[in-house]
Design brief:
Elements lengths: L14 H12 L15 H11 L6 E6 H8 L7 H11 E6 L6 H9 L10 E4 L3 H4 L3 H9 L10 H10 L7
Parallel strand pairs: 1-2, 2-3
């Protein structure tokens, strides 16, 4: 299966393992749907979702600060304004802060002239400092150093990662 991310070309674990971890995380959330997309742009992901879900379903993308900055970056579009109008007309983005990029930073980004018309469709998720400092990079670094990750990931995912020896190879 072709996997594409706008800025990432390498994935340390298989798509199946990544999907398993997401499934573990959301297994007690009956109103959450998980999907796999080979599309790099969120507008392409939205178009694919519209083919699967009825029009009355609300589409929310949960992303981090770094991702919303990429979504708003003109370098990914031939016609940025038209693409973003189509994207934000039919979806809402929940944007989690990072420790170094607080909720105010998210709102500052949305107050920039070129982003203002989309700010009503972007909601900041205030993540407590301890959690906002957790990243997949940090988890991978801990594993490669032999440090425990039990305080960084849910128990079932921790067990899965350790049993499968994920993220332990350097590429």
């Amino acid at each position: 299966m072709d996997r594409e991310n706008v800025d990432k070309t390498f994935f340390e674990v298989s798509l199946e393992d990544r999907l398993s971890m997401l499934t573990f995380f959301f297994e007690k959330s009956p109103h959450v749907s998980l999907g796999i997309s080979s599309h790099g742009l969120f507008l392409d992901k939205l178009t694919a979702l519209e083919e699967v879900y009825p029009s009355e379903i609300s589409i929310y993308f949960i992303v981090g600060y770094d991702t919303i900055t990429r979504i708003l970056d003109k370098k990914y579009y031939i016609d940025r304004n038209a693409a973003l109008k189509a994207l934000f007309k039919k979806s809402i983005f929940l944007v989690a802060n990072r420790k170094d990029n607080c909720v105010d930073t998210i709102y500052d980004l949305l107050e920039q002239k070129e982003n203002r018309e989309f700010k009503a469709r972007v909601k900041a998720l205030k993540i407590p400092d301890f959690f906002s400092d957790i990243s997949s990079t940090r988890v991978r670094d801990y594993l490669k150093k032999g440090m425990p990750i039990s305080n960084l990931v849910p128990g079932k995912i921790n067990q899965f990662i350790l049993e499968r020896k994920l993220y332990l190879t350097n590429h």
